[in-house]
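User: Okay, second chain of the day. Same drill as before: sequence in, C-alpha cells out.
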Amino acid sequence: MLEEHDQKIASYTMIMAPRKRNRHALGFLCCFGGSDLPEINLKDNNPLQFLEFSVPIPPAEELNARFSELVDELDLTDKNREAMFALPPEKKWQIYCSKKKEQEDPNKLATSWPDYYIDRINSMAAMQTLYAFDEEETEMKNKIVEDLKTALRTQPMRFVTRFIELDGLSCLLNFLKSMDYETSESRIHTSVIGCIKALMNNSQGRAHVLAHPESINIISQSLRTENIKTKIAVLEILGAVCLVPDGHKKVLQAMLHYQVYAAERTRFQTLLNELDRSMGRYRDEVNLKTAIMSFINAVLNAGAGEDNLEFRLHLRYEFLMLGIQPVIDKLRGHENATLDRHLDFFEMVRNEDDLELAKRFDLIHIDTKSASQMFELIKKRLKHTDAYPYLLSILQHCLQMPYKRNGGNFQQWQLLDRILQQIVLQDERGDDPDIAPLENFNVKNIIKMLVNENEVKQWRDQAEKFRKDHAELMSRLEKKERECETKTQEKDEMMKTLNKMKDKLQKESLELRQTRDQMNDLVAQLNEFSHGGSISFPPPPPPPPGGPLALSSSLMSENLPPLPPPLPFSSCPPPPAPPPPPGGPPPPPGAPPFFSMGMPPPSTTTFSSSGTSLKKKSIPQPSHPLKSFNWAKLSEERIHGTIWNEIDDLKAFKVLDLEDFEKMFSAYQRHQDLLTNPSSCKQKEMGSTEDLYLSTRKVKELSVIDGRRAQNCVILLSKLKLSNEEIRQAILKMDEQEDLAKDMLEQLLKFVPEKSDTDLLEEHKHEIERMARADRFLFEMSRIDHYQQRLQALFFKKKFPERLAEAKPKVEAILLASKELIRSKRLRQLLEVVLAFGNYMNKGQRGSAYGFKVSSLNKIADTKSSIDRNITLLHYLIMIFEKNYPDILDIQSELQHLPEAAKVNLVELEKEVNNIKTGLKAVEAELDYQKRRIRESGDRFVPVMSDFITVASFSFSELEDLLNEARDKYAKALKHFGENEGKMQPDEFFGIFDTFLQSFAEAKQDLENMRKKKEEEERRARMEAMLKEQREKERRQKKAKAGSISEETGEFDDLVSALRSGEVFDKDLSKLKRNRKRSGNQGLDSSRERVVTKLNY
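Assistant: Same drill. C-alpha cells below.
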C-alpha cells in the first residue's frame, strides 16, 4: 500500500525558465548568477489520496524540523525550498514518510550507500586487467554502473556527499584510465561518463569535479573511442564546462592534454577530422557533428571569448587553419535544423568579429590571407608614431632570420609566432586566457626545446661533405646540360632554317621559270611584230623578287645562268604611301552657305570634306537634362574610312530603356561628398655598400696594370674557375664545350687589353713568370689575333637566340592585337551602344557625334549615377549588355593579345632590331677577315660562325618582315579608329583598350558582388525568420510539455540541453542581427561587404 501511495505522491521537477545568454554574466542558469529562477511544479495528475499512518502527524515545529532535514538533502535552490515549505502539513508529512520508508527498505539498504558502488567499480577495474568479460558479465557490470548513475541523480544529498568523501570521483577516473580497448568501446564506458555527468548535475558534485586536478583531462581522453554515444556525452560535458565559471580554461588545457595523448599534430585536429568524416557510420551521424559544432561555439564564445575579440580571432584561426570553413559548407548538405543553427551562429559571430577588426582600421573587410594588405595596414597605422622605428627594426631582423627552402628552420618562426600570440592575448595582470604557449622568453632555451642540437651537430660534418660533393656534381651536370642544350638548339635552328630556305628556293625557282616563259613569249611576239605582224599583249606578269630592277635585268640577261639567292638582309623598307588627298579648301570668309541658293537644305544628309554623305542623326531627346559624358568627339571629316562608318547607334535606341537611364543619370541630384582615399606614396630606398679588400701581393710580383682594374679582373677570374690556357682555348674554339656563360663573357669584354696595356706588357714579356695574375691574363689574351672582335662575336652568338626570342613576341603582339581590334564584332557593337548613350546624354557641341576618340572609353567610369554613387555609367552599360547584348560580355576573348601589346614600346623595339642588325653585320665583317688570314691550330671561328651567320641571317630577315607587317597593321588599326598616324605609340593605343577591358572586368565583378551580397542578405533574412519561427514553436512545445519533465532533470542537464539545441546562443544571435541591421546602411555607400560563407582557408 505504501509503494502504491509512493507512486501517487507528486514527483517534484525543476522546470527551468528559458535561458538567455549574457556576454558579461553567463546567466544561463540560476546557480550561475542568472536572474531567471527555476520554479517547482508538482507532477500530480491524480489528486492525492490521504492515507492513515500508524504514526500521527507531529506538531508543526517538529514537522518543519524533520521536513527541513529532508529538503536540505535534496540540494534545492532558495526559491524551490520556499515552494517546498509552502506545501500543506499533510503533504509535507506524506513526502517525509515515503522518503523515510524508502530509505529503510531492507531490499535497498546495500545500494543506498556509495560504498557498495565504489567497491564494485574498483573490483571491475582490477579484474579487467586480468581477463576479459564475457557478454553476460559485461551486462552485469554495465547494470552496476547504470545503477550508480541513477543513484547519483535520485538519492538524497548525503549520498552524493558520502560519494565525494569516499573519493568516488577518483574511482571513476581511475577506471577510465585503466580500461582496455574492449571496455572503452562498450556501453560500460558510456555509463561511466554518464555517472560523472550525473555527479556534475549536483552543485556540490560539480564543484568537486572542477576542483579535481585531472578530471577534465581524463574525461577528454574518452574522445579517442569509436563509440559515438560516448563521444557525444564527452563533448556535451566539455561544452557545458566551458560555460561554467573557471571551466573554460580547464577545457582548453584538456584539449592541449588530448593533443599529446592522441599524438595530434595540432590542437582540435581530431574534432575537425570527426566533423569532416563522411564514410561508414559517421556519414549520417548528425548528432555527433552537432555536438562537435556546439562544443566549438562554446569554446569560442564562452570564458575569455565573451568580451575578448583578440581571443576569439586567435582561437578561431586555429580552426580555420584546420579547414573548418569547407567542412561547414559540406555540413549544410545534411539540412538539419539544429546543426544549421550552430553553423549559422559560427558564421555570424565570425562575420561580426571580422567587421569589428576592420573598423579599427576604418575598413569594411581585411583580407587576412593577404600578407601585403595586412602589412600596409600596420605600416599606415604606425607611420609617424614612436612605434614605427621598432616596426622597421622587427622587419630588418626578420630579414636576417635563417631561411631554407625545405623549411628546416621553421622553429624560429614558430617561436616568434608564439611570442606574438602571448603578447596579444595577455591581459594587464599578465594572465593568459589561453594556455600560455611559452613559460618564459629565453630564446636559447626555447630553441633547444624545439630542436635537438646534439643530433644536428652529429650529422653536420657529414652533411657538409655531402653538400660539397653534390655541388660539384651539380656543377658538372649543369655544364654538360648547357652544352647539350646549345648543340640541340643550334641543330634545330639549322634544320628549321634549311627547310625554310628550301621552300623559299623552290618558290623562287618556280617564279623564275614562269618569268622566263613569259619573256620568251614576249620576245617571240616582238620578233613577229618586227616582221609586220600584230601583237596581242598578255596581262603583265607578277614582278620577280627584287622589284622592278630585277625585271629589267632579267630581260637583259635571258640566256644568263640562274640568279644567286637574295642577300640575307632586305633592302630599306619602301617609302610610305602618300597621304590621302585633303578635302576641299574651306569657303572664303563671308561666303554664303552651301545651301543658300533659294533651296532649303535637305534634312537627311550632310556632306564631309571627302565628298561622302553622312546621314543626319535623329537622336531621341531626354525629358530633362542628363549628366554629360566627357568624350572627345571626332570631326565629321575624319569619319570616312574608319570603324564609325559601319556603326549605326540609332539601332541601339530601339532596345534601350531610356526612361530608366534618365533616372540613373539625371543632372538633378542630391549633393554628396566624394569619398577619396589619398594614395600613399611608396618610397623605395635602395642602397648598397661594396667593400673591396686588396689582397696582399707577393713581394716579387710584377704588375703594370691599374690596381683597381687588376683587382676586379682577379675577382672575375676566380669566378670563372678556369686557367688562362683554358680560357684561351675556349675562345679559339668558340666555346663549343660551353665553359663560358653569357654573363661571364659580358664581364670579360670589360677587361679587353687596351693599347697602353699591351705596350707595357710587351716590354716585360721576358718576365712573364713574375707577372701578377691579372697582368699575365691580359698578356696571354693579347696574343690572340682580334681578341676583342672574337669575344664580341662569341657573346653576340650566345645572346642572339635570347634577343630574338624577346623581340619576336613583342612584334607578334602588335600584329595580332591590331588584327583583333579591326576584326572584333563585339567591340564594334560595344562602341555602337556607347555612341548611342553619349549622343543621348550630350547636347550642343558634344552631341550628334558620328564617332569619338578611343581615349574616351576610359572616361565612361567617371560618370556616376544620380541615385547610387556606387553605380557608374560603365556598370549601367554592363547591365544593358547582360540584358540585351550578352555576347559583348565575352569581349576579352576576342582581344586576347591586347595586354601584351600594351607593354610594347615600338621605338625601343625598333632600336633593338637595328642593334641586332648592326651586330650581324659586325660578325659578317669579322668572318670575312678571319677567312682571309691563316688560321692557327684549333681555331674554330670560321666554321662555327659561318653556320651561325647562315641561320641567324635568315631568322633575322623573318623578324624584319614580321616587323614591317606589324607596322602596316598597326597603321591600319589607327586609321580604323580615326586616330592620327604617327602621333600615338602602340603602348598608348593598346593601353587605352587594355585599361578599359580591366575596368570592364572589375565593373562586372562589382555587379556580381552586389548581387551576391543582396542574395546573402535575403538568405539571412529568410534564415532569421525561420529561426524565429522555430524558436517560437519550441517555446510553445516546451510550455505544453512542462508538466511531464522527469524529476531526474537537473541543472547540468539543462545546461547541456541548452547547449545542444543552441538556445544558449539566442541572445548573441539577436544582438548580432541588430548590429548587422544598424551597420548595413552605413557600409552601403563606402564599400562592399564580403560574403562570409564563401571564405575558404
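The longest helix spans residues 453-530.

User: Thanks, on to the next one.
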